Amino acid sequence: MTDVAYIPEANFNLFSITRRLRQGFKLGGDKNSILLEKSGKNIVFDIVIPTPKGAIYCAYLKRKNVEVASASKANKLISVNLAHQIFGHGDEASTRKTAKALGFELNRGTMKPCVSCTAAKAKQKNLSSHGEHVLSTEINGRAFLDLSTVKPPSHLNVRVNKPHWRIIVDERTQLKVSDFFETKNVMVEPTCELFYKWKEAGMPVKIVRMDGAGENITLKKRIDSVDWKLSIDYEITARNTPQ
What we know:
CATH class of the largest domain: Alpha Beta
Strand content: 15-25%
Number of domains: 3
CATH topology of the largest domain: Nucleotidyltransferase, domain 5
Distance between the termini: 60 Å
Low-confidence stretches: 66-74
CATH superfamily of the largest domain: Ribonuclease H-like superfamily/Ribonuclease H
Mean pLDDT: 86
CATH architecture of the largest domain: 2-Layer Sandwich
Strand order of the largest sheet: 10-9-8-11-12
């Protein structure tokens, strides 16, 4: 049969008997089955499902193995790159063996690099044990600043009033200064005040290393503003660093 609609996920597919009659089939049958016949080929609907007012006649159609084996060679001629994708992204040798076992013929040519395989095999860059970073030799010569959000386990049902943790670390002494804030942006003014206090004490911060988050950019603008004028340089880290 040709020109049919097949839905593999459906329990049943509808069959139009009137369409087949127009195609030259002859209709017959009795209470046990409905028979369509054409050129010596029969389609028998012998699965009877009773309904309150009648019955539905069904048929179970199964493709014969000889029909699968008779598929045209053109439909089984594919490229080695396509075979590599549909057969599990193996190496070229295993891809060719799999294709041969399944009856596929591959076009000539070698397998090209696969973007998906390249991404899967990618790894982080190995870091040198001796970096080029020069450690600060004076107090507050370089300060590291970062924020983290503290969240209690959900099952405790605890509310944290100031969940945003800002920590500043002096590279020279490893002194850590921690504070907690209601929102990330709230930390901007207190941080400026802290840096100003250190400057007045003769320990000005010369370099601040931080990421490019929005609250840090706001902090940078306030530090450079006419209100503070702290004359600090910045080292903005990129995402996924140091890798």
